[in-house]
Amino acid sequence: MTKSEAQQRINKLYEQIDDLRYRYHVLDDPSATDEVYDSLAKELKILEREFPDLANSNSPLNRVGGKPLDKFVKVRHTARMLSLNDAFSTEEVKEWEERIKKLVPVQHLEYFAELKFDGLATSLVYEDGVFARGATRGDGFMGEDITQNLKTISAIPLKLNLELKYTEKFPRDLKQRLARALSLTGRIEVRGEAIMSKHAFATLNKEQKKTGGTEFANPRNAAAGSLRQLDPQVVAARKLSWHAYQLITDLGQTTHEEEHLICAMLGFPTDKHTQVCGTLDEVNNFREKILNLRQQLPYEIDGVVVQVNDREIFKRLGVVGKAPRGAIAFKFAAKKATTVVEEIKIQVGRQGNLTPVAVMRPVEVGGVTITHASLHNEDEIKRLGLKIGDTVVVQRAGDVIPQIVEVLPKMRSGKEKTFHMPTVCPVCGFKAERQMISEGGEKGTALICSNRRCPAKDLKQLEHLVNAFEIYTIGPKILARFKDEGLITDAADIFTLKKEDLVGLERFGEKSAENIISSINSHKIINLAKFIQALGILHVGEETAIDLAAHFGSLEKLKAASFEEIDSIPNIGGAVAKSLYDYFQDKRHLDFIERLIQAGVKLQVTSYKLPAKTGPLAGKKVVVTGMLESMSREEAKAAVREAGGDWVSSVSKNTDYVVAGESAGSKLAKAKALGVRVLNEKQFLDIIKR
Ligand code: IVH
Prior knowledge:
Blueprint: H1 3-26, H2 34-50, E1 74-76, E2 86-87, H3 90-103, E3 111-117, E4 120-127, E5 130-136, E6 142-144, H4 147-151, H5 172-184, E7 187-196, H6 198-211, H7 219-227, H8 232-237, E8 240-247, H9 256-266, E9 275-277, H10 280-293, E10 301-308, H11 311-317, E11 319-320, E12 323-324, E13 327-331, E14 336-348, E15 354-365, E16 368-374, H12 378-384, E17 391-397, E18 401-407, E19 432-439, E20 442-449, H13 455-468, H14 476-484, H15 491-494, H16 499-503, H17 510-522, E21 525-526, H18 528-534, H19 542-552, H20 555-560, H21 563-567, H22 574-585, H23 587-598, E22 602-603, E23 621-625, H24 633-642, E24 646-647, E25 657-660, H25 666-674, E26 677-679, H26 681-687
Parallel strand pairs: 2-13, 21-22, 23-24, 23-25, 25-26
Antiparallel strand pairs: 1-6, 3-9, 3-10, 4-5, 4-7, 7-8, 10-13, 11-12, 14-15, 14-17, 15-16, 17-18, 19-20
The protein binds 2-(butylsulfanyl)adenosine.
Residues 82-84, 114-117, 121, 193, 245-246, 305, 324, 327, 329 line the site of 2-(butylsulfanyl)adenosine.
């Protein structure tokens, strides 16, 4: 064969293989058989080997390139990767509808319902039609670059179908809109779920068992574990699959349904069980239908996703916390099993809170073995009427967290024992005090260890900090050991550890000492939000830490902030503000932070910015004062951020816009005095295109 003949043949093979891939993965067309595909691929492989300079990076066989990585590189998502709020009953879905109907007073809302795949959220970016980058969700802002691994998944196109071949069956007007948008767009982002089929999972576990590898609890863990492999060869052998569920780039879609259609036209596998629903009754029926199908599906699902079909309205509904308001995960009830509570232990938390935990006879629930379940507090034990020795019903809430839902009193033998909360901390022996707490809007009491320096508290704080710094080589056991051996007294000491310190420890190898030290050193640089989270301040979790970082931009400013300033930040309530303010008033805490910095911890200079700074308010500092008619304060804040702007609480000469609503007061006056541009609500809405 001459070179030019080979080139022609290779081109034909590319086309034919792409065609089969599309028919198999996107159109679910069974006439595209594996055998034909394999045979064509084999011929292509031989030709590419014979004429190496003809093989190009677009080759459909170019899936397992590259060497194993040392570690994954972090990447910033251009738009935040959100998750979904859950609903478990028709009532909860009804409440969801009522909430959104209040915000968008339209007569009729149309929904789009689809399967909720149980896998791993991923983002795929294409540059000029070529797969350029794939990433995990991470914390929603930053994920890990797993491009090499995703490339091995044959369901993911390496090249988009920009020519829109094989799309005769799609609506013509949508196709035209898409073609126009594609001619103007270089970068396309699509998100979807990486999954492992039940069959691939069973095969993998059998293989793992044979070779003595770790068996996975369920397909989701297997998929996640596989994508975390540094060697793409290994990933390729794991037979993962992928389904698109979200089109991030504006390609002319007006509904979520069109997002699915566009994804399919471009070459992504999409869910075939979707339905546009005019009412919640239809949504409920859809979910019922899918529940009946669940067993037969080739992959695991844990519910259905329901969202407002119209993208305009969906956008307008905005985001609460980490989830879009316009979508909900309507989950299937958790799987249940029965077992026996053998003991109730007390766990001491980071803030010294004593939590009862049921230790149970091991039982399998939905493929995972459960041995422990938190009982939260004494009230919960009373509510359940639980005694030690009782037979109970356990489930995994949201299919993850084990939970005791019911006691079966008829199963009692008479030997069951009533449980009492201890009066002292089981770790340090100090008195346990009862304190009022409010959690998620509910008030209750909690038992707290009164010892400020309780070793259990310290240890939990340490664990928390090490996790926030992502130093995964140091688990709880190693931390406890470092502490017992006197190597560390608090977290700052971790960062001054040297290899020699560890090698001296009994049963501690040179290699693991090296691993630990190098992982500590490579995680000394941390962004502000993570750092704030790492401090383990009472009531300050990931979300609050992000809000604080975005608001203050530097640790210095946060340290110096008044209670009033912290309290004025949207999303941050009084109790949280007080806890933060008190924390930074305590000299010991300031010393601790100083020691962390002395030990080499570096805060990343770039401040932790909320969603991508693009949009009509990009780079603008916006103050909203007074009451707006169309949205609450929280919604206005979300809208400003979504439009790329910075939400600021006080007016200065650096402020770009002051949006003045009903009964705006001193901030409006100040804006006028400083000559800052004032917008009324309508002007504001016009700018953000609502
Ligand atoms: S839409 C705004 N659709 O469920 C977030 N998510 O619990 C976009 N998931 O992180 C999510 N199937 O990884 C959507 N058909 C589907 C899904 C789906 C599975 C996952 C996704 C998300 C998680 C939220």
